[in-house]
Amino acid sequence: MGESGNRRILVTGALGQIGMELLFALQNKFGYENVIASDIREPEELSKLEFRYEKLDVLDAKQMESIIRDNKIDEVYHLAALLSATGEKNPQLCWKINMDGLMNVLELAKKYKFRIFAPSSIAVFGADTGKIARQDSPLNPATMYGITKVAGELMAEYYHSTHGVDIRGLRYPGLISWKVMPGGGTTDYAVEIFHKAVASEVYTCFVRGDTKLPMMYMDDAIKATIQLMDAPSENLSIRGGYNLPSLTFTAKELYDKIKEKIPDFECNFVPDHRQEYADSWPDETEGNLSKAEWGFELDFDLDSMCDVMIQSLRQ
Ligand code: NAD
Ligand code: AKB
Is residue 293 part of a domain? Predict the structure, then answer.
């Protein structure tokens, strides 16, 4: 691995909700030249000058190997995945992309010795977790997406202990951001609602008003990602997925908070199939281990997150 100033980085699934923010944070830290975005999709014309780009389907191990070898990559942020709602529409494809894609990255890390960031999710938890998910709560997910995330965490531990691969992971809560629309998850309502509020349109929320889930503003998620990847290896007691502290509010509480700032905004609640996935997840996560081992704390609460979301979307 290169010195901390010149890590050479590949981001898979880089055109998604997290990738499009992480890319620029990584560019700021390591330089434009050292960060390569990749995705199965082509970037929009306007984005083409903003980052180096390689088209890559993570199921194509040969293509992945040539990008990693030719660019002397020493860190991969593996974001390519199908999320919960899209995954439930096609569980076999979800398993294939989430697991085979990860396996391709892990096998190449064995050979080329690069480090990996591979995110997990609060979807690892199931209905037996209770309201607050702790680091060692049971992992009995009800969705195929959650199953792939539990298996991914186990693979991370296995490749670390058996092959010495330096892989790190976080259990992200639902992420709220304004730059890119979310890509087919259950927590997407918490982003969509802001877009409708700022556009002065009525929002039909696809979960009940009393649905409470762990959430986080994107800047905190990016901060956690960079902090975890910067942490000394010897500080880390786990490799699969650190719980993070989260915000917790019901969909109705989110609506009420936005309405304080945009009084004309109207939202109604018409639950669909995604209610079931939301009901299987905890209300909140505790993040004691991430705080103890690499010092993570949230910067944004519900109020400051709503302010920045509304201001940014208005601009
Ligand atoms: P996203 O759906 O917005 O982006 C995923 C990207 O992967 C998309 O751009 C898509 O085109 C790409 N992709 C899909 N199949 C691919 C393939 N075969 N090869 C290459 N690229 C492919 O997802 P995101 O929200 O950015 O999530 C990134 C990671 O973070 C995922 O592992 C997800 O499970 C995890 N995560 C996200 C959240 C969240 O709220 N956004 C929460 C928990 C965990
Ligand atoms: C989803 O809803 O699927 C994601 C997640 C919490 O993993 N946002």
Answer: no
